[in-house]
């Protein structure tokens, strides 16, 4: 994972071609582009427009490019592909757009069309295949990769590699710190409720979550226990496929979606209502709520996906109303330094319109002082694997957010998404700030059982 | 019709030396995104886009472009609705999108100095920390720039009380076509000599590029109340507004939204709780001291009711007020749900004649089989008939432009004007003949030449490029869609 220079083979410009010979329908979802009336109200919401001031790097500009390609006025050339790749898919533009343009769906389609019809160079293709098709869907391989990365990190090999690459002029993304083996242990098949049980839920363990954030998964279980719920990790699935969908591999996403649906079906017990599926990664909860977009209307899995969507809760969404019924009593003081600031993950606020529940959760925790964070709905630049593909852009997007963090005076930054978690940690470390990053669930768990995260 | 490109490698390199690699946009695909502003009916890609970061860089860029003799179109955020930022003659777009610094905020003096590319809403947000705000509030304020506002003398809902941009300008720094910097920042409200700032405001990018603007800030009023009067039809709502004006009531904003607009807004992310069963609503802000607000609100309710309002609501709190206004401001964009394109006409009528002209516009659109929605700054008599269409349908485009022309002509005949706030740009250039004689236009051309003798700044815009007699002789046809260079 470490050591991709800014312009890796993975985002090298693709070779162009003439519009003839392209399947335009698979390149762009044309009818969705027509929703845009070119008003420009979305410009200032867009992190890449904020960064550059360039119209083609704005939502309106990107939609114009897509529409031009679909209408045959523009060849899907390297410039086009680069503007599509530059987008963070944060969907802030959807929050700004009065016309209701479904930008996220448009961009996923456009990227997938590019992957199919303008193949990237062989090395990039191979790397993508290994990442998306080989590593992410396989728990064993993920575990091994985690162990290997940790070995590289603790032996110092990584530092030497990064130093060499930096000397060669590359911008090197920071690789996420892999915790020691014990912290990477998997969830128990069941975590019982504390006290009288109010019910049971399924939880999604995730692909990279157990490797990098096993403690957050366990905190989620402890929080649910405190809330009165028994939790069981959903068996038979690893990755939900959101990274695939965002990065031009809709086929891969579809395969994983079908696997997810099968796993969900397997948990359905005769007669009883299906259990809620609680997800502690905003990117994954957003993706699972929109899984049906991947299937044609006549595909039976579309209906199944819609049913699954009704079961999916983001952790904050599930916890907020239930915390009120069973308020935690232990102060979280001492474990983290206050004041706290909450940064809205894009896939919570823009993709799921979830803004109040996380704040309600925090307000219910004894001893927590929340201070406002300017532009908390702005993208932090993590954007899934974006921080690996385009480290320089990713870091630049975070810069103004780091300024805002400093102005807020917060000593602990709260998030609800693993990508944002890593991105903030890396930025805070770069600036040498004395601020810790924490997932909401870690705070809730502590307020219930008084234990610090491990 | 792009001019033969005078941009060679040497010029490109010289420009890049001034603004850096990130300050240059070239390449066919990227340039195509600069082909239009908020009115995509007019479309012409530039040969190059340059994004200077301050006055000095702008001056050096302009000097280089002067030597090369290329046409220039200034661009802020490209939210204009008349093709003003469209480089109709090809050439270079000079964009202020990287000039986004608030240079000075002086709360004690109630003024601010900003770079031209500062977004209108960002200035108000920054001023809010000091109990102040920037009064001109175009519905596009979350995106449009102060420079664009100056160029178009933009207005907004609250300009009913506070006045358009020109009323809030203390000075501008301008770069002329040859790169000369003109500092027109004055210390007092009453300029000695000719009012050049006033002259510049509304020049639509034909006089020079604004790089810095000094504006007045206004104290946030002690109290603001938002009232929403519901009517069964648009006609009655217009009648109520005329009555409000006749009774000399002074709310700070008077807006009208009709049913189609309400439906679109309520289906969008800006849904605000507008009643979808009303035929039209009048949205008003009332501001001042407690007594003032109560007095005006009471009168307002009375007048609305006697004109047929079946209900008058008051926003419960600041959050609801904010929602109602966000809904109003998202209204144009929300129309994107109705059809792929929206033509926003902008005309002014005497406020005693609101009713008859809105009726007439409805009639014209019905005759031409066009879908019309109305949302407008009623207090200022500033109509915005919004016509939904699809630019891929040439006949519909022809009918839309025809409707636009007929509506404008009717407004002029009624004693009104062809633009309330969006400017003339490309779209209404030829309509200037409906309002002015050739002598007036020649006088304006002289003023323009005094600022820009080279005629390279936004050529083809604002003033007709042919004699009015020729324009009158032409029937209104789709030819006007493509501006003749
Ligand atoms: C949804 C929507 C709602 C709107 N509501 C309103 C409204 O309520 N009231 C209103 O008045 N307008 C409104 N408008 C129109 C538009 O937003 C305004 O005209 C605005 O001032 C344009 O600003 P801009 O930065 O987008 O300028 P642009 O569109 O980029 O440019 C507008 C004109 O100004 C010139 N220009 C831009 N910057 C400079 C500069 N630095 N120096 C010299 N010339 C320059 C351009 O050449 C062009 O002629 C609305 C538009 C939309 C899309
Ligand atoms: S998804 Fe985010 S980065 Fe992409 S265009 Fe929209 S606002 Fe910009
Ligand atoms: S806000 Fe929506 S309709 Fe307006 S330009 Fe952006 S995407 Fe298009």
UniProtKB/TrEMBL annotation, chain A:
The keyword 4Fe-4S applies. Transmembrane segments: none annotated. It catalyses: (R)-lactate + A = pyruvate + AH2; glycolate + A = glyoxylate + AH2. Its cofactor is [4Fe-4S] cluster. Residues 26-56, 77-101 form the 4Fe-4S ferredoxin-type domain. The keyword Isomerase does not apply. Keywords: 4Fe-4S, Electron transport, Iron, Iron-sulfur, Metal-binding, Repeat, Transport. It holds the Pfam family Fer4_8. Residues 175-195 are annotated as: Disordered. InterPro entries: 4Fe4S_Fe-S-bd, 4Fe4S_Fe_S_CS, Cys_rich_dom, Glc_ox_4Fe-4S, Helical_ferredxn. One of its GO terms (molecular function) is 4 iron, 4 sulfur cluster binding. Binds 2 [4Fe-4S] clusters. Its EC number is 1.1.99.14. Component of a complex that catalyzes the oxidation of glycolate to glyoxylate. This is Glycolate oxidase iron-sulfur subunit. It comes from Rohdeia mirabilis.
From TrEMBL, chain B:
Its cofactor is FAD. Transmembrane segments: none annotated. PROSITE patterns: FAD_PCMH (PS51387). Pfam families: FAD-oxidase_C (PF02913), FAD_binding_4 (PF01565). Residues 42-220 form the FAD-binding PCMH-type domain. It is an enzyme of class 1 (oxidoreductase). One of its GO terms (molecular function) is FAD binding. The keyword Secreted does not apply. Its EC number is 1.-.-.-. Keywords: FAD, Flavoprotein, Oxidoreductase. InterPro entries: FAD-bd_oxidored_4_C (IPR004113), FAD-bd_PCMH (IPR016166), FAD-bd_PCMH-like_sf (IPR036318), FAD-bd_PCMH_sub2 (IPR016169), FAD-linked_Oxase-like_C (IPR016164), FAD-linked_OxidoTrans_Type4 (IPR051914), Oxid_FAD_bind_N (IPR006094), Vanillyl_alc_oxidase_C-sub2 (IPR016171). It comes from the Bacteria. Gene3D superfamilies: 3.30.465.10, 3.30.70.2740, Vanillyl-alcohol Oxidase, Chain A, domain 4. This is Putative FAD-linked oxidoreductase. The lineage of its organism: Bacteria, Pseudomonadati, Planctomycetota, Planctomycetia, Planctomycetia incertae sedis.
